[in-house]
Amino acid sequence: FSFVSQDSSSYLRDLGHNDGLEQLIDAVEKIDGVKTARILYLYPSTTTLNLIDKIADSKVFVNYFDMPLQHISQNMLKIMKRGKGAEKLIELMNYMRSKPNSFVRTTFIAGHPGESEEDFEELCSFVEEFGFDRGNVFSYSDEEGTSAETRDDKIEQELIDERAEILGDII
């Protein structure tokens, strides 16, 4: 089984449960005949070390960790409203990587408004050093209704595409 949602780690948070995904893992493990399962996508602000342990200790769920980071520079995480910050993201990624037979996958956005050359270089260095098992890179594009759509510091499409290609070659 694959459990898929935009933010699986928020399962049952709307009902006041901060450990809803852990509860789901417990329930699935009790179902006869379920041999393997994996969870897509863990969101950085709602994934805890306890949740990572729960997945890693499961007899059913595989250590497949898919967390869309989008970026790693503190400046860009703030602009993108990606709450936990670079230090916390790196801690989560390293903890996932430390689990036996882990597979760590992510996605990044290249060329988001406000992304400086330094921000991009920091992202490239992180991706090179971490060595993700799989990753995807998306070129920034406007999405109606977002704060990024109205920013004045947009990047030229040619540079966005160049950065996406560079980052894609690293991943």
List keywords for this structure.
single chain, 171 residues, three-stranded parallel β-sheet, two-stranded parallel ribbon, 6 helices
Question: What features would you describe in this structure?
Answer:
The protein has 171 residues and is an alpha/beta fold. Helices cover 39% and strands 13% of the residues. The protein has six helices and five strands. The chain has helices at 20-29, 49-57, 74-79, 86-98, 117-130, 157-170, and strands at residues 2-4, 38-40, 64-66, 103-110, 134-139. The protein has a three-stranded parallel sheet. Helix 5 runs parallel beside helix 6 (157-170). The protein is elongated, with a radius of gyration of 17 Å. The chain starts with a strand and ends with a helix.
CA radius of gyration: 17 Å
Unreliably modeled segments: none
Choose one word for the global shape.
elongated
Percentage of residues in helical conformation: 25-40%
For the residues shown, what is the average pLDDT? Answer: 93
By DSSP (H or I, 4+ residues per run), the number of helices equals 6
Structural class per helix/strand content? alpha/beta
The strand order across the widest sheet is: 3-4-5
| Beta strand count | 5
Beta-strand proportion: 5-15%
Q: CA-to-CA gap between the ends?
A: 27 Å
